[in-house]
TrEMBL record:
Pfam families: Pribosyltran. Residues 15-163 form the Phosphoribosyltransferase domain. This is Hypoxanthine phosphoribosyltransferase. SUPFAM superfamilies: PRTase-like. Its EC number is 2.4.2.8. InterPro entries: HGPRT, Hxn_phspho_trans, PRTase-like, PRTase_dom. The keyword Transferase applies. The keyword Metal-binding applies. Belongs to the purine/pyrimidine phosphoribosyltransferase family.
Amino acid sequence: MTMENDIERVLFSEDQIQARIKELATQINQDYANSKELVVVSVLTGGMMFTIDLFKRISLYASLDCVDLSSYRGATTTSSGTVEVLQDLKHPIAGKDVLVVEDIVDTGRTLKKLMDVLAARGANSIRVCTLFDKPERRVVDVKADYVGLDVPNEFLVGYGLDYNNLYRNLPYVGVLKPSIYQ
């Protein structure tokens, strides 16, 4: 039995994901060409794979930091509604341009909390890059500046997205069979 048996269907192949990341990096390189201090902030743990692949394609002077927030607890497919900061940034961002890198924007709660925290720290600018956007589930009014792919309101796993901390290592993104999480 393998993880692939738990996938109902593949939405985006590894090649499709990598092609879109290349396009996003090209746009980011253009938009931040005049930035003196770009800080890429990866939202852990789901954003790790995307951040690494994107960061390798950013041709500007940029530093990397990580933050970990969560509104999910254990084996659940729904947000608790309360966002908790599990790991904070290690470096100050005052006066710097910040690019938040997220795996997916779903309800928007986590992103809203992070944006509020970063804004209070005096960043020069804050933009958001998400690989996946699920606008149907939005309950908080937030938008990403860079969106890789819009996704349907289904439970997705792979390429950093997880269920109960599993499936992140799939190189593609697929729909998890409901029998796995119901």
